[in-house]
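$ fold --in a.seq
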Amino acid sequence: MADVTRRMLDLLALLQTRRRYTGAELVARLGVSERTVRRDVDRLREYGYPVDAAPGPGGHYGLAAGRAIPPLIFDDDEAIAIMLALAANANADQGRPGSIGDAMSRAYGKLDQVLPPRLAMNAATVRASVEADALRAPTIAIADITRIATAIHERRELGFDYRRGERATRRRVHPHRQVHHLMRWYLVAWESDKGSWRVFRTDRMSNLDVRTAGFEPRELPEEAALDRVKAAVKRSSRKAVVTVATSVDEVAAALPFQSMDVEALGAQRTRVTLRCDDWRWLLFHLSHLECAFTIDEPTAWAEAIERFAASVASRRRRGEDVVGGVRRSDLGRSRRVDSGRPALDP
């Protein structure tokens, strides 16, 4: 790549950070003269990039928000990083039309088609060497994320139906911040009717409506909205403490998306503190650990899991491997009987 092309890309990368740079700063960053910086800025303008320049003392350069921005230019590392992020997260939901997963899959396909041949080969080589776990999360429509963002930015009330179990209620809130925590989206908002800060799961919201009524923003008691979400998640769950016969690194690798505290008690002994809704969820998490463990608290959960394990062992000894309340032997006979029947359309 010619030096002038590389320099233009470096200049554009700096300006796209939305920060304002003085001429002296650009001279130092690019290693060229001030005259060369002015000439390169003029070239960017010819290519259609709206570069603002404020002359005189305190002057600066910055990339303005234009109505028509030319295609973004990424260097090799940036392009491959974007492709990997899209490929790794495209399966996070069921990929329904309008969902985040669907948009990621479409974006990956479009970027893959427009990459230069050399860069496309590099991206394909890296992509072929990677397997991504399909971590399922509730499906979220990008349109809902956008509506919430609009209401936050414009300080307008947000109305929506909120579902808890079988019951749905109409809510009206002053939205403060969206939070992505442990593969779920949340909204932190002030609810006037209740006179308090509330946390809502976005996947339980429907019929979102950005209202015309505005509001004055309030200061959140916590330092960050994420702290409020974490506190809300903790309140709806119960603390569990487990001693695991493996290292801290093995625990972190087996439970990568769990909010938990780990304490090394030895080379192959770790205390894990996490929160769950009930003992079944705790057992589900612990099933990812291929090692012995002891449930220190709560005692009731330890006893419930022991009874469950004893029940399963007893049924297996009697040949009654029960699945969903049906003995596996009966389930097998049922499948053999039904195997000759035509399948019904869904």
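$ fold --in b.seq
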Amino acid sequence: MKIALVAPLYEAVPPKLYGGTERIVAYLADALVDLGHAVTLFATAEARTRATLVAVRDQAIRLDPAPLKSDLAAHLSMLHEVRCRAHHFDVLHFHVDLLHFPMFEGIAERTVTTLHGRLDLKDLAEAYWRWPQFPLVSISDHQRAPLRFARWLGTVPHGLPANLLRCTTTPEGGYLAFLGRISPEKRPDRAVAIARRSGIPLKIAAKVDPADRAYFTHVIRPLLDDPLVEYIGEISDGDKGGFLGNARALLFPIDWPEPFGLVMIEAMACGTPVIAWPCGSVPEVVDDGITGRIVHDEDEAVAAVAEVSALDRRRIRAVFDRRFTADAMARCYVDLYRQLLRSSDASRRLTA
């Protein structure tokens, strides 16, 4: 198959530091190439990929030092380029939310749109009612809840390259890990409270977006004075294996409808158990008592810190290998692409 993958332009593909969507697009592109498909990736020039790259911007928007820049203009320019080349592809797979809908209405039957974010925002439902012809893919079943009426083609969980992170059977760090982003919905304050009550050090590897700067300054920074808490900042992919693999557990104390939670499967790839609240996708990702514990309050989380030490880290990795590899993700998408094309061919025959 000839497949176009259209990535957001906010981060490199894969990101140099924090970033979820662009990371998944990178893994998917390489896995599809490995399966023998002809893949073209529309992304920034920094992309590292085995696909054919069409560079539509010199560098990722977030780390671009230019003081004035337009993310909307950059994405519209990219979509124009994709539209001009659309006839070269069997499937156009978008990862830019619904930005492409007006421009691709005429060929919606050859598009797949994976939605990576939360879908309970004001105005979204009305927009998806306006463009019901676009086939959508969710990254968890729970993510679909606000848009049950939409044209869902399937659910495909995220996946990582099998050789990206190795299983650490004997962690050396003796600490709890928090990895991701400092924001109210991610609840790093809960992570600190759990560490304090458990008496176990906490290492926080997370970025702070400008929108969350005040929250970090007024709520989180004062908590970092505790000698049990160490703030590392953003880390790269190369640092994740050691950071997660040597942790006693990953804390995922979220307070929002998480669409997927990539960090959970990154921890599982390292054999590291996950302690998480049952929000959004969490019950679909974490097998309670096998790959971690799903808890409902701080007391249960503190108890889980002791309990997860008994979990078999090789078994956690085995679950990752079975459910969350990039190869498994790519094969699921190929099945959906074929389903879409069969439906499109049948529709054309009926109208011929």
